[in-house]
C-alpha cells in the first residue's frame, strides 16, 4: 500500500475511538468543555453550507449554528445511526464537493486521526470559498489529560494520534493565507469527578500559575479551538512596461543629479 493510500485510510481511527471515549466519565467532561467552545464560536459564523468532517459525538456539534444546511461527512456510519445533519458517506480525502463551495468546515479532532495533518488542511483549503471559515478542535499535547491517557490503558491510541500544538497549527494556517480569528483553550480536568473534587484547590492553583505560560503558547489546558478565515487574494495590477523600464535587465540606466551637484558644476 502506498503512502498516499495509507494517508487516505487513516482518517477514521482516532475519531472512531473518541466516539466511545467521550462516553466515559472523564471523556464526558472533556466533551462538555469542548462543546462550550464550539457553541460559542459557531453561533457567530454565517453562510449557506456547514460541513463537519468526521464524527466524535453521538449528539450534534452543530446545533447552535445559524447556518441552515448542515452536512456530516463520515465513512464509518451505517443506516442504523441517527444523525441530525445530512449525512454523506465518503472518504474524508475524497469528498464529493466542488472546489470553493463550502462556507464553513468543522474539523473535530480530524487532524489527529490522519498520517499527514498538513496535507489534509491543504485538501480542505481547496473546498472552502474565499472569506469562508475553518474551525478546528484538538487536544493540547502539554495537558495533564493527554499525558495521563498516554500512560493509561488506551495508551496505544493516544500515542498513535497526531496531537498538534495550537501554535504549530496557527503557523500552518497563516502559511496558507488564513486570518486566525480565535485561539482559545478550554478548561482543564485531569481526573474523574470524585478524584477531581479532592484536588480542586490544587488544580485552581495550577491554573493560576499557568496563565503566564498560556500567553507563551505553553498552556496546560486539555483542548483548544482555532477559528480561521480564508482570505481572498487580489493580485496587484501590473504596471505598463514603459513604467518599469528602469527595472528591466539590459535597459539604459538613468542618472539623476542632485541640485547640489548642479550648483557645484557651475
From TrEMBL:
MF GO annotations: S-adenosylmethionine-dependent methyltransferase activity
Top-rank taxon, per record: Bacteria
Domain Methyltransferase type, residue spans: 77-136
Protein name as annotated: Methyltransferase type 11 domain-containing protein
The organism of origin for this protein: Thiomicrospira aerophila AL3
Amino acid at each position: 500500500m502506498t503512502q498516499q493510500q495509507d494517508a487516505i485510510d487513516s482518517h477514521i481511527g482516532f475519531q472512531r475511538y473518541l466516539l466511545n471515549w467521550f462516553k466515559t466519565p472523564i471523556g464526558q467532561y472533556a466533551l462538555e468543555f469542548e462543546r462550550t467552545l464550539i457553541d460559542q464560536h459557531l453561533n457567530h459564523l454565517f453562510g449557506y453550507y456547514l460541513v463537519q468532517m468526521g464524527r466524535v459525538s453521538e449528539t450534534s456539534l452543530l446545533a447552535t449554528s445559524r447556518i441552515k444546511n448542515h452536512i456530516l461527512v463520515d465513512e464509518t456510519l451505517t443506516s442504523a445511526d441517527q444523525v441530525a445533519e445530512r449525512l454523506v458517506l465518503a472518504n474524508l480525502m475524497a469528498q464529493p464537493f466542488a472546489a470553493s463551495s463550502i462556507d464553513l468546515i468543522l474539523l473535530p479532532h480530524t487532524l489527529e486521526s490522519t498520517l499527514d495533518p498538513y496535507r489534509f488542511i491543504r485538501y480542505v483549503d481547496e473546498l472552502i470559498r474565499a472569506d469562508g471559515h475553518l474551525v478546528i478542535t484538538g487536544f493540547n499535547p502539554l495537558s495533564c489529560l493527554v499525558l495521563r491517557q498516554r500512560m493509561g490503558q488506551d495508551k496505544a491510541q493516544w500515542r498513535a494520534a497526531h496531537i498538534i500544538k495550537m501554535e504549530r497549527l496557527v503557523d500552518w494556517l497563516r502559511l496558507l493565507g488564513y486570518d486566525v480569528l480565535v485561539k482559545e483553550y478550554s478548561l482543564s480536568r485531569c481526573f474523574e469527578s470524585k478524584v477531581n473534587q479532592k484536588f480542586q484547590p490544587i488544580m485552581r492553583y495550577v491554573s493560576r500559575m499557568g496563565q503566564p505560560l498560556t500567553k507563551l503558547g505553553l498552556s496546560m489546558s486539555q483542548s483548544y479551538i482555532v477559528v480561521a478565515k480564508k482570505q481572498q487574494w487580489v493580485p496587484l495590477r501590473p504596471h505598463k512596461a514603459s513604467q518599469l523600464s528602469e527595472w528591466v535587465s539590459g535597459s539604459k540606466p538613468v542618472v539623476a543629479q542632485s541640485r547640489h551637484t548642479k550648483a557645484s558644476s557651475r
